[in-house]
Amino acid sequence: MSVGAIGDLRAVLGEGGFRRLFAVRLVSQAGDGVITAGVGTYVFFNASTFPSPAAGAAAFAVLYLPYSMIGPFAGVFIDRWSRRQILVWSALVRAVFVVATAALMAAANRGVPLYVAVLAVLAVNRFFLASLSAALPHVVPEGKLVMANSLSPTIGGVVSALGGIVALGLNAAAGDTERGAALTVLVGGGCYVGASLVAATMRKDQLGPDRARWRGTRILADLTEVAAGLLAGARYVLRQRGPRAALGATGGFSFLFGPLFLMTIILYRNYFYPTSATTAEAHVTVLAAVSAIGYACAALITPPATRRLSVQAWITLMMAATAVAVALLGEMFLQVSYLAIGFFLYLGRQSVAICATTILQEEVADAYRGRVFAFYDMMFNATYVAGAALFAAFMPASGRSAAIVAVAAAGFVAAAIAYRLSSGRTPSASAHASSS
Asked: Distances from the Cα of 23 to the Cαs of 28, 85, 92, 154, 204, in angstroms?
């Protein structure tokens, strides 16, 4: 890390408001890790070894589409209610849904009610995370947003992974029983309560929006205005060249990421280790660790890179680099090559996400920021599911498809070119160039 980047890191951590918002994220994402691992070991264990591409795509749709679709509706309220209050109350609501999930687990329920309870937890979580992103510019100077966006979600992801490890240990200690799984997810619910308490230490108006735009708790009246608010947000972002291009880049990368991720899981289960699901899962764990390293490296290299290049140029470069990695390594169909692909996919995806988030924070007016981040969240997840579903129709049962690798690599090249042509040189780029 360069001297300038270290200085930016110190400046970000020196902001008291950022430290509190960061603490809210870390405590909450620790709970996310516990919940995900706890539920995964109880219900979704087989989902990581998908027996067919179609089953894998269906699992993606169940996990991502329902709560992604409500994101834009949440964004309207994020722009109209105190974001500090949203953080406080959404964390508590999640804790309530976790209690319901734990009760269903203790009753050995593995049916629709459990799925509904888990999806409710995930739905509120997207509301919570979008609020965190929209609030960040209120506690970090504009010139330090790249560093803040590198630090917050990356360390949050690491803490979430640690929470998952803790959950696995708790489940093992409890003998992998239904009651043990219920107790494990309750630990995650306790983290959500803790996040709410930390958020409550901030002022109600500290995270925006301006008090003049605050609305009361007239839920029914507010809901009738949601559609109009969403339409206004869509019209706004379509008029903004930089944010529009950033959303497009995010969607394009996720659309290609989805089928590659699905194909990799299928390869490990049905091609590399067709006779042993246990062995396949053990090696997928190694793949996850290598991918996590790529994810973390994005936070290390993106801030210094964007001190020398614009964030727009870095997005273009990372998409092009991902295309090269997929093209050179994908058609080998060797386990070691897919470890490398996992590293580069997560490096590229998180680098693009950091830059896109920064563009949206800097170039979207605060009155629209919550809606735009909700659109961003939907773009990130819905295109991921759409890509997996589309390519699953052509994916062989073994997962081995040179054609899909070639199309994905070409797609990344096309996405890089399209973004470069559509983004232009925005004020964000100029600001970063002048600060280096």
From this structure: 8, 16, 16, 13, 17
Question: Is 323 within 8 Å of 412 (Cβ atoms)?
Answer: yes
- Taking alpha carbons only, the member of 378, 157, 385 closest to residue 262 is 385
Global pTM exceeds 0.70: yes
User: Which DSSP symbol is given to 143?
Assistant: G
State the alpha helices, DSSP H only, in 210-334: 219-224, 226-239, 241-266, 277-308, 311-329
37 vs 45: CA distance, rounded Å? 9
Count of CA atoms in the C-beta half-sphere (13 A) of 144: 22
CB of 263 closer than 8 Å to CB of 50: no
Q: Which CATH number is associated with domain 3-435?
A: 1.20.1250.20
Domain boundaries, the chain: 3-435
What is the residue-wise DSSP string for 181-217? HHHHHHHHHHHHHHHHHHHTTS-TTTT-S-GGG---S
Q: What is the DSSP letter of 269?
A: I
Q: What is the pLDDT of residues 123-176, one digit of tens each?
A: 788 778 888 888 988 988 877 888 888 788 778 888 888 887 787 777 767 765
Q: Which DSSP state fits 140?
A: S
